[in-house]
Write a structure and sequence with these properties.
Layout: H1 5-8, E1 21-27, E2 34-41, H2 52-70, E3 82-89, E4 96-103, E5 107-108, H3 109-112, H4 119-135, E6 138-139, E7 152-155, E8 166-169, E9 176-177, H5 201-209, H6 224-238, H7 244-255, H8 258-280
Antiparallel strand pairs: 1-2, 2-4, 3-4, 5-7, 6-9, 7-8
C-alpha cells in the first residue's frame, strides 16, 4: 500500500503493522549512479513488545543476521547485497529510527507477470533462482502462496550483465538452513505433480505458483516427468558419493533444456525495452 512520507513518519505511534516502510535511494549521477532499497522504522523507542509493529524490528534484525551468517556467497547473484542496519535518534522528525540498506534489485513478480509475452522465460528464471538457493540449503520460508510472490524481484537494467535480466529473492527474516531433497527441477512438466515427485513445501509451491504443472493431465509411467524421476533414483544409487545438487545437474542435462532457457533470456532483451523504460521513470 502506497502512503505519503508524512504518514510514514507516524510509524510506531500506534501503527498496527509489522511491515517496514520502503524507499528507493540513489547515490551518484549518470552511469555511476547506484540505487538502494532503504527500509525505515520510525519511533522504535515507543513501540511496545506486544504490538504487531514490534515484529518489524525483530524481522529487520533477523534478516540482517541471516545475511551475515548464510548469504555472503550468493549476495549480488541470487539475493541483493546487504549493507547493514543502523539506529539513529532524529528527534521530532521520526524519533528513534532503524534503517536497513540493501541493493535495489528491481520489479516484483506480480508486476512483471502482467506483461504479455515475457512471463514464460521469466518464470523459468524465477524457478531456477529458487532452486539455486535450495542448492545452498537456504529455505526462504515465505514464498508458498501467491501473496508472497513479491519476494521474487527482477532486475531489468543490469549494468553488470548487459541487457539480460536477473531474478533475486528478498527478505530472509524467517529463513532457515534446511537441506533440500527434491528429485525434480522447477521447470514445466507434462502432467500434474505425482506422489513419486519428491519436493519440499517451498519448491513445490513455487513450481505450482509459476504454473509449471499441467494440472488437467494425470501422471502416467511413460511421461517425461516419471522418466526423469526414475533417472534421479538410479543415478543416485549408482553414484552414492554425489550430492543431490550434483545429481540434479546431471538430470537437467539429460531431460531439461537449460540451453533453451539461456537463449530465451538473451532474446528477452528486445521484449523488455518498453517495460524497462516505463519502470525506470518511476
Amino acid at each position: 500500500m502506497k502512503r505519503s512520507f508524512k504518514d510514514a513518519l507516524m510509524w510506531g505511534n500506534g501503527t498496527d503493522t509489522e511491515s517496514a516502510i520502503f524507499f528507493r535511494g540513489y547515490y551518484g549521477v549518470g552511469d555511476a549512479q547506484k540505487r538502494f532499497c532503504v527500509k525505515l522504522l520510525f519511533n522504535i523507542d515507543k513501540v511496545k513488545a506486544d504490538e504487531d509493529c514490534y515484529k518489524a524490528i525483530d524481522y529487520m534484525l533477523a534478516d540482517a543476521r541471516f545475511y551475515a551468517q548464510h548469504l555472503k556467497e550468493v549476495a549480488g547473484v541470487l539475493v541483493p547485497r546487504h549493507y547493514g542496519v543502523w539506529r539513529a535518534q532524529t528527534g521530532e522528525w521520526g524519533g528513534m529510527i532503524m534503517c536497513s540498506i540493501t541493493e535495489w534489485v528491481g520489479v516484483p513478480w506480480e508486476e512483471i507477470s502482467k506483461v504479455k509475452g515475457i512471463t514464460d522465460t521469466l518464470r523459468r528464471l524465477a524457478g531456477r533462482t529458487v532452486e539455486r538457493l535450495h542448492d545452498h540449503n537456504i529455505y526462504h520460508g515465505r514464498i508458498t502462496n501467491r501473496y508472497e510472490m513479491h519476494h521474487l524481484l527482477f532486475r531489468l537494467d543490469n549494468s553488470d550483465t548487459g541487457p539480460e535480466p536477473q531474478c533475486f529473492v528478498v527478505d530472509f527474516s524467517r529463513a532457515t538452513m534446511d537441506p533440500c531433497s527434491r528429485n525434480l527441477p522447477i521447470l514445466p512438466v507434462d502432467t500434474c505433480i505425482c506422489p513419486e515427485a519428491r519436493a519440499c513445501l517451498e519448491t513445490s509451491c513455487v513450481a505450482a505458483l509459476l504454473g509449471m504443472f499441467q494440472m488437467d493431465v494425470d501422471p502416467a509411467p511413460e511421461t517425461h516427468m516419471f522418466r526423469a524421476i526414475r533417472f534421479h533414483e538410479r543415478y543416485s544409487h549408482l553414484h552414492p558419493t554425489l550430492s543431490n545438487r550434483e545429481v540434479l545437474m546431471v538430470q537437467r542435462r539429460h531431460f531439461f533444456n537449460d540451453r533453451a532457457l539461456e537463449r530465451n533470456i538473451r532474446d528477452l532483451a528486445s521484449s523488455l525495452n518498453a517495460f524497462r523504460s516505463s519502470t525506470l521513470r518511476r
